[in-house]
Amino acid sequence: MDRFDVIVIGAGAAGLMCAATAGQRGRRVLLLDHAQKLAEKIRISGGGRCNFTNSGARYDCYLSENPNFCRSALAQYTPQDFIDLLARYGISWHEKKLGQLFCDESSEQIIAMLDAECQLGHVERRMGVQIVSVSRDGDFVVETAAGAIACASLVVATGGLSIPQIGASPLGYRLAEQFGVALTPLAPALVPLTFHVEDAACFAELAGVSLEVELRAGKGCFRENVLFTHKGVSGPAILQISSYWTPGMEISIDLLPGQDAADLLAGREHSEQRVANALVEWGWPRRFADAWLKVQGFDVRLRELTPKTRGRLAEAIHYWRLKPNGTQGYKKAEVTLGGVSTRALSSKTLQANAVPGLYFIGEVVDVTGWLGGYNFQWAWSSGFVAGKNC
Ligand code: FDA
């Protein structure tokens, strides 16, 4: 039987980083993946330019049952470490906004760089490999459709459930269950939200409209753009808040963030102007102002508002409540919330506490970043840390 020091299952972001790091330490590493192509999610990320990290990646930009868990890995391998790696390969990048760093040219450069790093570590790679089972008899034994392979350390880097069309599978969660490693509940995250039928009818004509808002749900609060779609709402503000949203929860939306609607309206008590025109003046897209005010019953002139209705309108503008009926699911989600419980892993090494030699890294772990490069940073950091220890 073939034997390696380390087998890494999953040749995605975390798996490539881990394999390269372990290989460069002199470990004999095999990287296995059932997909034919390397790192498909890196390839399609960031509109083909890969938002590879966020310069502000801190532990409190991640959701987890234990929010402190990711601190150690993020400190051991920082955004600057990844930027330094890019510099060694001459890959140029730019900051778009909010610390989000993208390649100037293509996400393919990141894949080629990680591939080159693996080659430096003499990592053997086998793609298109179906994993049939994993067992443990001293060594781990990975049974594949092409035969059994043994290893001392097994690293599970199979990612989450999102975008099954390009290789996502639940293998990592199944392996955790098999080895008695606890899981936290899974849910699609960084995902568009859908409307109830009544809301969909009211806002159908808004598809394509985008405006800046401040959204709150649970412990989440984000000021970004919301985009109305044919099915509901999307855009960065919604993707961010979706990680904090649970079914049945209302989202509170400030439609005029940073401004005081009561003050703005109070100065116009005698105006003949329509409320919709005033809101367009204060920054709302025309289509949104017309549709929203109609639904809210404020399709009137400013002078027609009484002090009471003016107060109600200001309140509705700053605290609009929307109750989505669901998400667009794993087909449209960027990531999976939840996963291998951080209670079952060492935060310093990513090794399972109860199963020496077994590691879980990347998205399969219950560490989920915000939108904006945070999830790749977790993949690099956790992959590096496991690669140093496996
Ligand atoms: P990843 O999914 O990268 O890799 C898992 C690997 O395991 C895959 O190669 C898969 O084929 C393999 N695998 C799965 N099941 C297997 C099995 N049964 N047998 C063998 N192999 C198996 N994040 C970010 O920070 N910035 C961004 O710009 C984006 N953009 C983005 C766009 C889109 C459309 C999506 C869907 C996601 C993003 N993300 C992102 C999220 C980011 O892609 C994600 O968090 C990381 O790729 C996770 O890295 P992993 O290595 O954990 O999983």
Write the layout of secondary structure elements.
Blueprint: E1 2-9, H1 13-24, E2 29-32, H2 40-44, E3 51-54, E4 62-63, H3 71-76, H4 79-88, E5 93-95, E6 100-103, H5 108-120, E7 124-126, E8 131-137, E9 139-144, E10 147-156, H6 171-178, E11 187-189, E12 193-194, H7 197-203, E13 210-217, E14 220-228, E15 232-234, H8 236-242, E16 251-254, H9 261-266, H10 275-281, H11 286-296, H12 307-318, E17 320-322, E18 326-327, E19 335-337, E20 358-360, E21 368-369, H13 374-389
Parallel strand pairs: 1-2, 1-10, 2-7, 10-20
Antiparallel strand pairs: 3-6, 4-21, 5-6, 8-9, 9-10, 11-19, 12-15, 12-18, 13-14, 13-16, 14-15, 16-17
Helix pairs in contact: 1-5, 1-13, 10-11
This protein binds dihydroflavine-adenine dinucleotide.
Folded structure, characterized:
The model has no long low-confidence stretch (mean pLDDT 96). This protein is 31% helix and 24% strand. It folds into two domains: 2-184 and 338-389, FAD/NAD(P)-binding domain; 193-327, Elongation Factor Tu (Ef-tu), domain 3, CATH 2.40.30. The protein has 390 residues and is an alpha+beta fold. It has helices at 13-24, 40-44, 71-76, 79-88, 108-120, 171-178, 197-203, 236-242, 261-266, 275-281, 286-296, 307-318, 374-389, and strands at residues 2-9, 29-32, 51-54, 62-63, 93-95, 100-103, 124-126, 131-137, 139-144, 147-156, 187-189, 193-194, 210-217, 220-228, 232-234, 251-254, 320-322, 326-327, 335-337, 358-360, 368-369. Bound molecules: dihydroflavine-adenine dinucleotide. Dihydroflavine-adenine dinucleotide is lined by residues 9-15, 32-35, 41, 44-46, 50-51, 131, 157-159, 162-163, 167-169, 171, 334-335, 362-364, 373-376, 379.
